[in-house]
Amino acid sequence: MATPKIRREQVAGMNIHYVNYSLDYFLDAQQRIGFKSIELWCAAPHVWLDHMRYYDAKEIRQKIESRGLAVHVLTPENCTYPYQFAAKEPEAIDRTFRYFANGIRFGAELGAKILEANSGWGYWNEPEEEGFKRSAEMHSRLAEVAKEYGMTIACESLRPQETRIGYRLDQIKRLFDTVNHPNFKVMIDLTAMCVQGETVQRWFDTFGAENIIHSHFQDCDPYGHYVWGDGKQNLHDMLCAFLDNGYTGLFSQELTDGSYFEDPFYHDQRNMRNLRMYTE
After folding, report:
1. Which distant-in-sequence residues (6+ apart) come within 8 Å of 37 by Cβ?
2. Paired strand residues for 153
3. Is the peptide bond before 4 cis (omega within 30 degrees of 0)?
4. Which of 64, 118, 168, 278 lies 20 to 30 Å from 196 when distance is taken between CA atoms?
5. What is the pLDDT of residues 11-54, one digit of tens each?
6. How far apart are CA 134 and CA 121, in angstroms?
7. Number of Cβ within a 10 Å radius of residue 106
8. What is the Cα–Cα distance from 65 to 120, expressed in whole angstroms?
9. Cβ 72 vs Cβ 112: under 8 Å
10. Sorting pLDDT into bands at 50, 70 and 90, what band is 279?
11. Is-cis flag, bond preceding 222, omega within 30?
């Protein structure tokens, strides 16, 4: 069986598990390990982004590019308080829109082309339809901003413990069809996909390769966001499933397990050793 091959530039490092270290430390680590691409998670202490403003885009881009790296995806923190795509109260909707619109502008200044997103979660004590409608409205507005700045939104599914309106493939398909905008696409998160018992092939059969523009490509069990080899997925088979469907996007390494936070550099090294045999 032939070994699937991807370009080194398609493997993207992420900074979530570097939250206890400086941005410079993270960038130096990515350079030393051999990453060429990063998906930049926007949260303190690495990046300050809120609904009012963002800071230091020019300086941050210079730091990144001076190390031979490039930001292809910007990920505003979007799974915890205070911003979510299905916000309900008028002031929360306004702040959320301005926050993610700032994320689009910030991403464009850094040279990114994709803003990572999800459905949001609304309130669990209201009809799911209400949260869904607000999510679709928010993404429709943000897609127009993305169009203005040459960006595209990539929406992932979450886990059922995180949302009731966007954890299944059919829910993301409905959101995609409702927004119906060329700057609103989807992405595969392997953990969320595996939790639901879905497959890569089902996602490509549903959306087509032209609409799946990004991935969070980490090992899982099915929960967890692990270094490859720490979970139970087959790296070779997962890569083949993407490549056989004509996927050309990034394979971002979203590592969030708490055991990685003390020495993220070491765990990124382990991960890259597993991925290196598939890169060229």
Report:
1. 9, 10, 11, 12, 13, 69, 70, 71, 72, 250
2. 115, 184
3. no
4. 278
5. 999 999 999 999 999 999 999 999 999 999 999 999 999 999 99
6. 10
7. 26
8. 32
9. yes
10. very high
11. yes
Can you list the positions of beta strands (E) in 92-183? 114-117, 152-155
DSSP 39-102: EEEE-TTT--B-SS-B--HHHHHHHHHTTT-EEEEEEE--SSTT--TT--SHHHHHHHHHHHHH
Residues 6+ away with beta carbon under 8 Å from 19: 43, 45, 46, 261
The answer to whether residues 73 and 154 touch, using CB atoms and an 8 Å cutoff, is yes
The CB density around residue 22, as the number of other CB atoms within 10 Å, is 11
Question: Which regions of the chain does DSSP assign to beta strands (E)?
Answer: 11-14, 37-42, 70-76, 114-117, 152-155, 184-189, 212-216, 251-252
Instruction: Please give the structure tokens belonging to residue 236.
Output: 């070779």
d(CA 148, CA 130): 28
Q: Which residue has the tokens 């990034």?
A: 250
